[in-house]
Every structure is written in structure tokens, then in C-alpha cells.
Recover the amino acids of this structure.
């Protein structure tokens, strides 16, 4: 996949500003200044701030997918792949904790920003549910996980991991990443194993 450096630069700056300020109401002019591009350059890539917000969230998810893909190539067992997904989610959240908190606070609001983030979060949630469901199905087939409904298990795992991400994002001094991954993974795997 060919990346557009300037577009990525705008997204990275916007994510930082949105998160640091705790608001989606950052003027496009300020984002342009911080990204060291002309205001018109932002509009080459994004028609409005809501589209830029969606792109920020999508970029975080793309980076998560890349991390998961790399881990899936190295890990064979469903349990280790699940651990890799949890690590990837927590790492991406750590990279963008302020933006994650903003997305959660904005989610469900009646604003345009809330609607933009809701739509993107819904797509990400559906895709992650599919990944988790396939991992559970694989674990059941390999007799590593107990027999249960893969879709229901994926929903419960997703809720647990999402809750852990919210707690971590709000913690001013979160535990080291490896400890957090072990804690969440062990909790989830305990529920899955016979």
C-alpha cells in the first residue's frame, strides 16, 4: 500500500491536537499551521473536519491491523493470536490515549463529530468482532477453547477488552504494557479454556 506522507502528517497532527485539547473543535487553520501545510492542502485530502476525524480514527485502526497481521504471521495458536490482538489494541490506545478518550466522550453525542466517529467506530467494531469470532472458532476447532457460540464469545471478549482500554486510557499512571496484556489476556483466556 502506498502511503501519502503529507496526508499521514495531517492526520497525525490532527489526532494529537484533538486529543491534547479534548475537543473536536480545532480550527482547520491551526491544524494546517501545526502540520506545516497550507489550509487548502488539508481540503485536498479532507472535505471537512468530520472527514478528518474519521480519518484519524481509521489511521489508528490501520496501524492496529498492521500490528495484528505481523503477530498473526508469527503466532500459530488461537490463544497467542488473541493475546496479540489484545496487545495491539492496548498499544494503539497507548499511542493515542488522549484521542481515544475524546472519541469515547464524543461517541453518541448529537454533534456532527459524534456522528462521524460513531460511523467509523461501528465499522471498526464489526471488523474486530469478525476477527475475534474467527479466533474463537479456530480455538474451538483445535480443541483449545471450550465449545461455545463464537459470535457471543466474540461480543463478550470485545466488551472486556474495550472496558480495559477505557480504564487504561483514564489511568494517569497505567501499569506497564506487558503486565496489562497479561492481565487482560489471562482473564479472557480463563473464560475460554475448558
Amino acid at each position: 500500500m502506498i502511503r501519502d506522507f503529507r496526508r499521514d502528517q495531517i492526520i497525525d497532527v490532527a489526532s494529537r491536537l484533538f486529543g491534547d485539547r479534548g475537543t473536536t473543535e480545532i480550527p482547520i487553520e491551526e491544524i494546517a499551521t501545526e502540520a506545516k501545510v497550507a489550509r487548502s492542502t488539508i481540503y485536498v485530502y479532507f472535505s471537512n473536519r468530520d472527514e478528518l476525524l474519521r480519518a484519524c480514527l481509521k489511521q489508528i485502526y490501520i496501524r492496529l491491523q498492521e500490528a495484528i497481521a505481523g503477530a498473526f504471521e508469527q503466532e500459530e495458536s488461537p490463544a497467542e493470536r488473541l493475546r496479540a490482538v489484545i496487545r495491539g489494541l492496548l498499544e494503539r490506545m497507548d499511542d493515542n490515549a488522549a484521542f481515544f478518550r475524546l472519541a469515547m466522550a464524543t461517541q453518541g453525542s448529537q454533534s456532527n463529530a459524534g456522528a462521524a466517529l460513531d460511523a467509523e467506530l461501528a465499522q471498526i467494531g464489526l471488523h474486530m468482532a469478525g476477527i475475534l469470532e474467527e479466533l474463537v472458532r479456530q480455538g474451538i476447532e483445535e480443541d483449545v477453547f471450550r465449545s461455545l457460540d463464537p459470535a457471543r464469545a466474540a461480543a463478550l471478549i470485545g466488551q472486556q477488552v474495550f472496558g480495559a482500554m477505557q480504564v487504561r486510557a483514564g489511568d494517569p499512571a497505567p501499569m506497564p504494557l506487558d503486565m496489562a496484556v497479561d492481565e487482560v489476556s489471562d482473564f479472557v483466556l480463563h473464560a475460554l479454556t475448558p
Q: What stands out?
A: The chain has a mean pLDDT of 88. The chain has one domain: 5-192. DSSP finds nine helices and no strands in the chain. The CA atoms of residues 108 and 115 lie 7 Å apart.
